[in-house]
Design a protein that fits this description.
Blueprint (H helix, E strand, L loop, with lengths): L7 H5 L35 E4 L4 H12 L4 E5 L19 E4 L5 H11 L3 E4 L13 H22 L5 E7 L8 E3 L2 E3 L6 H5 L16 E2 L14 H20 L2 E7 L1 E3 L12 H10 L5 E2 L6 E6 H13 L5 E6 L3 E4 H12 L5 E2 L16 H7 L7 H13 L5
Parallel strand pairs: 1-2, 1-4, 2-3, 4-5, 5-9, 9-13, 10-12, 11-15
Antiparallel strand pairs: 6-7, 6-8, 12-14
Helix pairs in contact: 2-8, 3-4, 4-6, 7-9, 9-11
C-alpha cells in the first residue's frame, strides 16, 4: 500500500508524542485522529535529518538539499517566539516537518526508529546570550540534554548515522585570544567593574608594551573559554558529540559559526542577532542604539554562505572529526555595521549609548584557514550585498 501523503497544514500539525506505540507502521490508518505519517526509509536511503529545521538556517539548508534531490526530515519545536505563523513558507513542501521537543526521550526513540537518517544536521538550540544567564536550565536542557537524548535514542534503536554535523558557535571562545607585542594572552571575561567604568578593551599583561588587539578565532589554536551559559552549553555539545561519535565510528563535523544573518531570520525575536535587531529598528525609522563605545567587532556571515559550508561538509565527511570556523570575512565594528544598516534603510545616524550587556565579548572574528582547507569554503556575500538581500525580503513582507 502506498503511504498516505499529507498537506502542509497536516504535516505542520503532526504530533510525535504517541509515535512509539505505532512506530512499526508505515502509515496511519484512515481513522487515526493524529493523521501523521513518517515514511519508512528505503534501503540505502540518503535521508538528512535536520533538528531545528524550521529555523532560518534550517529552512535555507533544506531548500538547498531538496534541490539536490535528497529526502529531508525536519524536527522543530515550532516555538511561537520564533515561528508565530506556524510552518515557514520558505520550507519546501517536500520537507517532512514534525513539531518536536528534543528533550523528550520517547519522541526521539520513536522518530529515529522510523527515520533512520544517514546524516544528522544538529541545529536545534536555545541561543540567547544574555538570556542564558537568567534562564540557564532551559538553555542547558535543550542544548545539552536534547543532544544526549538524541544519542541515547540512537543507541536504543540500534541506528548509527554515518555523519553528524553540529552547528556550534563562536561564543565558545569567549573573549578568545588577544595579542600585545609578541605575546598572545587570554584576558577572560570582562568584569562588571570594568564594564561600569567603560574600560571596554582588555588590558595587556603587566610588563607587556603595546596596545592589545584581538586574534581571529582558529579552532586549531584558540582555546575556548565561554563567558555565558549559552556558550558553555554549545561547548558541552561539542564534547558530548565528540565522545559518542568516536566510540561509535561516526564522522563528526563541528562548524563554529560567527554572527549569521539573512532572509528568514526572525525579526520579532530579540535574541536572534544584532543585524536583525538593527534592521528592525532602522526599518521603523528610529536611530539604532549602539552599545559600549561602538567599537565592538563582529564577523557577519550571510546565511547562504553558512549553508554552503554545511553542504560542503555533507559532501566531504571527515574520516573521524573536524572543527572549523565559519565567518563571512566582513569584520567590522558594530557602529560601522549600524551605519551601513541606517544608510540602506534611510534611518537616522546611530547613537552610541555606552550601555553594555553582561556576557557579551568585545571582539569576535574567524580565521577561515581551516574551512578553506577542509571544505574549500570561500564566502561570497559581503555585508552590504547580504543586507540588500535581507531588506528586499523584509520589504516583500518578511514572511519566513
Amino acid at each position: 500500500m502506498r503511504p498516505r501523503r499529507h498537506t502542509r497544514g497536516q504535516r505542520s500539525a503532526v504530533r510525535l508524542s504517541g509515535i512509539s506505540a505505532r512506530r512499526n507502521q508505515a502509515r496511519a490508518s484512515d481513522d487515526d485522529s493524529d493523521g501523521w505519517l513518517l515514511t519508512l526509509p528505503a534501503p540505502g536511503n540518503d535521508t538528512v535529518l535536520i533538528t531545528g529545521g524550521a529555523g532560518f538556517i534550517g529552512t535555507t539548508l533544506a531548500r538547498r538539499l531538496v534541490g539536490e534531490g535528497r529526502r529531508v526530515v525536519a524536527l522543530d519545536n515550532m516555538h511561537p517566539q520564533v515561528h508565530p505563523g506556524g510552518r515557514p513558507r520558505r520550507l519546501p513542501d517536500e520537507v517532512e516537518l514534525y513539531p518536536f521537543d528534543v528533550t523528550h526521550a520517547d519522541s526521539w526513540r520513536a522518530a529515529l526508529a522510523l527515520i533512520q537518517p544517514r546524516t544528522i544536521v544538529h541545529l536545534a538550540a536555545e541561543t540567547g546570550t544574555g538570556q542564558s544567564l537568567t534562564e540557564a536550565t532551559r538553555h542547558a536542557s535543550v542544548n545539552v540534554v536534547g543532544t544526549t537524548q538524541m544519542l541515547d535514542a540512537l543507541t536504543a534503536t540500534g541506528h548509527v548515522p554515518e555523519h553528524v554535523v553540529l552547528a556550534s558557535s563562536r561564543a565558545v571562545y569567549g573573549e578568545g585570544a588577544w595579542q600585545a607585542g609578541d605575546q598572545v594572552f587570554y584576558p577572560g571575561p570582562r568584569t562588571r567593574q570594568q564594564l561600569e567604568a567603560g574600560t571596554w578593551d582588555p588590558a595587556a599583561p603587566a610588563g607587556v608594551t603595546g596596545a592589545a588587539r584581538p586574534v581571529p578565532h582558529d579552532a586549531a589554536t584558540t582555546v575556548p573559554g565561554p563567558t555565558n551559559v549559552y556558550a558553555a552549553t554549545k561547548l558541552a555539545q561539542e564534547h558530548v558529540l565528540q565522545a559518542w561519535t568516536e566510540a561509535n565510528g561516526t564522522a563528526l563535523s563541528v562548524l563554529r559559526l560567527q554572527n549569521v544573518y539573512g532572509p528568514g531570520q526572525s525579526l520579532t525575536n530579540s535574541y536572534t542577532g544584532v543585524i536583525a535587531f538593527f534592521s528592525r529598528v532602522a526599518s521603523a525609522g528610529d536611530p539604532i542604539d549602539v552599545y559600549e563605545d561602538g567599537d565592538i567587532t563582529r564577523d557577519f556571515v550571510f546565511v547562504e554562505d553558512v549553508v554552503s559550508a554545511l553542504t560542503a561538509s555533507l559532501a566531504r565527511p571527515p574520516q573521524r572529526s573536524r572543527t572549523v570556523d565559519i565567518g563571512g570575512g566582513d569584520v567590522m565594528s558594530i557602529l560601522d555595521a549600524a551605519r551601513l544598516v541606517a544608510e540602506l534603510r534611510g534611518a537616522p545616524e546611530p547613537q552610541v549609548s555606552g550601555k553594555f550587556r553582561h556576557g557579551d565579548v568585545r571582539a569576535a572574528s574567524a580565521s577561515l584557514d581551516g574551512a578553506r582547507r577542509e571544505l574549500d569554503y570561500r564566502p561570497e556575500w559581503s555585508l552590504r550585498r547580504g543586507l540588500v538581500e535581507l531588506f528586499s525580503w523584509i520589504d516583500a513582507g518578511g514572511v519566513a
